[in-house]
Structures are given as C-alpha cells and as structure tokens.
Automatic annotation (TrEMBL):
InterPro entries: 6-hairpin_glycosidase_sf (IPR008928), 6hp_glycosidase-like_sf (IPR012341), Glyco_hydro_9 (IPR001701), Glyco_hydro_9_His_AS (IPR018221). GO terms for molecular function: cellulase activity. The active site is at H416. It holds the Pfam family Glyco_hydro_9. It comes from Deinandra increscens subsp. villosa. GO terms for biological process: cellulose catabolic process. This is Endoglucanase. Residues 1-27 form the signal peptide. SUPFAM superfamilies: Six-hairpin glycosidases. Its EC number is 3.2.1.4.
Length: 499
C-alpha cells in the first residue's frame, strides 16, 4: 500500500456527496443477510482438512502436507485471495480485524453469526499458533508464489512447491511478529467470554511473540530468503515500527499491563505515531493504531497518549470534503473512497470500520466533536459517511451492482479465484493440473462455484466495473477486504438507519 493521494473537491461534488449522506434511505438493503454472507466467505478460503459442518460445500480438503518439507505441521489457515499461497502477514491482519469486529460489534450480532465469526477467527488463530510454536522462530509463508501464480488450479489439486518460509532469531520479523501478536491478543479478548482457556493461551503466546518482534527489530522482507517469496506481493513497504506499536496496543488492551502502556507512550514519536499517516491496511497500521489507542484517552484517565487522539481526528478530517486538512482522501463520482492501485475496496471497508469505531469511542465523551476546519463532526456524521460506503458496496452505485458475490440480483460473476472458476472436485473428480485450468481462466462464462460473501477489488475511479476475471485488481476477493466489513455490517444490521 502507498500513501493516499491528495485531492480537492469542487462545490458541486461536495453538495451531491452531502445530499447522498443526509438523504440516503437504504432500508431496503438487508444488512443482516450481507453480514451472514460476509462471514461465510471465509469458509471458501479455508486451507486444510475441512470439518463436517463446512457450508461452502463445493470446497474440499487441501494443503494437507503443508509444512512437511520442514518437518512441522502448518496445515490450516486461509488462502489470502484467489491463489493458493498462505501469507502470514495479511492473514494475521485479517485475524486482527475479525477479532476487532467481534470486540466492538459482536454484541450486535445474532448468536449464530457471532458463533460463525468466532469460528472464522479460530480457523486462523489455530494456524497462527502453529507458526509461532517454536521459540525464536516464526513461519511466515507456505507456498512458492511464482510457481503458484503460473498455474490456474484448484487448491484441492495443488502440485506446486509448498515451500516453507521461516525466520529464525536473530533475523528480524517485527512486522509479521508484531501483527501476529496483535491478532492473538485481539482474539484473546474476543474469546474471553466463551472460551477463557483458549483466550489465556492466545494471550500468553502473543506476549512471547511480541518479545521476538521487539528484540529483533526489522522487516521480515529484508531477509533475502524471505524476499523472494514475499515480494512483490506482501513485502513490508511502509516499515515495521507501526506493527510494534500496534502489537503493544493490543497487548495493552488484552492484558491491562502497564508495561505496554509505557511502550506506546514512550515510542510514539520515535515510531512515527504522530506523523499523521492517513492509511490503514495489511501493511500500514497507523490510522487504525491511532483509533485503537484513542479509546484510552476518550472518557478515560490515561495521559501521555493525546498525540494518538490528535492523529486519529486528523485522519477523520481527511475524510470530510470541507475539512481543513490539505490532503483529502479521494472519492469516485458515485461517492466511493478511492485510491490508485489494486483491491480498492480494502480501503473502503477498513476506513468505514474505523469511522464506526471512532464514533463509538467519541460518544464516551458527552457532546464531543471533531473540529475539521469549517465544520464540527460528531458520531452521527461519521456513521453517515460509513453507511454511504456500505450501501455503495452492496449495490447503491452508478453500476447498480453489488460487489459482494451472492448478494442482490446483480453481482460479479467472473471473479479472479481459482477454486470458484474451476468445476468443483465433486462435479469434476479428475485433477485439473497446472496449465489445464487455463481454459477456465480464459472462459467468458460465469464461475461455476459462487464464492458467496466475497467482496472483490471493486470498480474503477469512474465507478465502472468490467467483471473481468483477468483483471485481478478489480475482480479478486481478499480476506482483508472482508474482515473489517464483518464489524461494519454487524453495526448496520442492528442499526440500519443510525442517527
């Protein structure tokens, strides 16, 4: 991910955008249905031995030998997108966001969906625990991406190298280890009420993994052996310092340990927490970090963290077209948050989540608002902004298309996803080898296996979408697009027309 582009808004666009927020009535949108499907999606991304209650029933077992080349069990976890590689860095971020969704909005979920969300988290945390089971070692990836990307085959048929990528002390992996610590700590909070024993295991492991991250500082992709596998797909482009603060902030919240409070207080300036980096995603945690830590400030008695709140509110102001910030996040003509690059909807879903969470935190202080130049922004405004993003993704856009597969009558049919695009192992039992799947990749027919709940990369800057399997930046789903959207949909399912 790269820094946000700077854009200014013309008065007409501002007027149209404001009217969309204030006048939009999307009561016809069924947020509860979208919530159920957004969680179901993760079953389609599972690696390993599938359970009897697997609902995405066109999938089969896969990756059952993962880790065997290194004499370790690395089965399980998630494929990050439409390929068959397991990348630890984005998987850990996905896990953190699923857990954060449950922490903030789980009480708004119907009990069956809360259970399904916890199952989705545990499918990942069980795997992450395996990756850090050995002291001073972290397994960061399974699968050779170059060989994998040169094939178009179902995960059940994989015959490419399942190369294991590992970092041993004193080689650095602060980013992956820091994010893994955050994921396990956040999950410890999520599982606290229902499974305290598992919660304790997660927290104990998170503490140990964070020690590795902090002691051996540096980016995992700086290791030559890792760079060939992680780059250019999931290199650390933006530095590892944010993951150290992010991991410490989650450990602080999970444990109430004052040492982690001191860590995020003392390292804020050194690690760039007050640089107002307006970005949040699998690589750059700054905006999310600032929102997370702001909870300690708003309505509390914790001092020394005011810079985090200031940075969080500066970020919120970049979302407001008539705010005072000189650098605004760009919107498409139809009102979608837009950044150049692939998988654009990852920004819309993650930023919508942050807006809802900050609105929740802001309400801890009566009559508290954010001063954005000419206007003051309160919780209701932030929720209106988030709702506009949600409604756009679910079909209220110039194309009239839902960007969630299986939701509404019009959605992407040709997503960039191997398992979805090739007949299932139940309908086509014969293996589909590496290049044999090319005919399905090139086909203009809809995918035979709908990956229900998958949110694709999304439309162009002009709101156009071609539904082209070959255009992976627009048509490929990812776990980290869906993960924050789970929390967002939980909120709007319970509050379809918030004030």
């Amino acid at each position: 991910m790269k820094p946000f582009a700077s854009h200014f808004f013309f008065p007409l666009l501002l007027l149209q955008f404001s009217l969309l927020i204030l006048q939009n009535d999307s009561s016809y949108l069924i947020y509860g249905e979208a919530l159920s499907k957004s969680i179901l999606f993760f079953e389609g991304q599972r690696s390993g031995f599938l359970p009897n209650d697997q609902r995405m029933n066109w999938r089969g077992n896969s990756g059952l030998g993962d880790g065997s080349s290194a004499n370790v069990d690395l089965t399980g976890g998630y494929y990050d997108a439409g390929d068959n590689v397991k990348y630890g860095f984005p998987m850990a971020f996905t896990t953190t966001m699923l857990a954060w969704s449950v922490i903030e909005f789980g009480e708004m979920m119907p009990p069956p969906e809360l259970r399904n969300a916890l199952v989705a988290i545990r499918w990942s945390t069980d795997y992450l625990l395996k990756t850090v089971s050995q002291p001073n070692r972290i397994y960061v990836q399974v699968g050779d991406p170059i060989k994998d990307h040169n094939c178009w085959e179902r995960p059940e048929d994989m015959d490419t190298d399942r190369t294991v990528y590992v970092v041993d002390a004193p080689s650095p992996a602060s980013d992956v280890a820091g994010e893994t610590a955050a994921a396990l700590a956040a999950a410890a909070i999520a599982f606290g009420p229902s499974d305290p024993g598992y919660s304790r295991t997660l927290l104990t492991t998170a503490t140990r993994v964070f020690e590795y991250a902090d002691r051996y500082r540096g980016a995992y992709s700086d290791n030559a052996d890792i760079r060939t596998g992680a780059c250019p797909f999931y290199c650390d482009f933006d530095g590892y310092q944010d993951e150290l603060l992010w991991g410490a902030a989650w450990l602080r919240r999970a444990s109430d340990n004052e040492n982690y409070l001191s860590y995020i207080q003392n390292n804020a300036k050194t690690f760039g927490a007050d640089d107002n980096i307006n970005e949040f995603g699998w690589d750059n945690k700054h905006a999310g970090l600032n929102v997370l830590v702001s909870k300690e400030v708003l309505g509390g008695n914790v001092y020394g963290l005011e810079s985090y709140r200031a940075s969080a509110e500066s970020f919120m102001c970049t979302l407001i077209p008539d705010g005072s910030s000189s650098s605004h996040i760009a919107y498409s003509p139809g009102g979608l948050i837009f950044r150049p690059g692939g998988s654009n909807l990852q920004h819309s879903t993650a930023i919508s989540f942050l807006m809802l969470v900050y609105a929740k935190y802001l309400e801890r202080v009566p009559d508290s608002v954010i001063n954005c130049g000419n206007i003051s922004v309160g919780p209701a405004y932030l929720r209106g902004m988030a709702k506009r993003q949600v409604d756009y993704i679910l079909g209220e856009n110039p194309m009239g298309m839902s960007y969630m597969v299986g939701y509404s009558n019009r959605y992407p049919q040709r997503i960039h996803h191997r398992g979805s695009s090739i007949p299932s192992v139940w309908n086509h039992p014969q293996p589909v080898r590496c290049k044999e799947g090319t005919v399905y990749y090139n086909s203009s027919s809809p995918n035979p296996n709908p990956l229900i709940g998958a949110i694709v990369g999304g439309p162009e800057e002009d709101d156009e979408f071609g539904d082209d399997r070959a255009d992976s930046s627009k048509s490929e789903p990812t776990t980290y697009i869906n993960a924050p959207f789970v929390g967002v949909l939980a909120y709007f399912a319970a509050n379809p027309n918030p004030s």
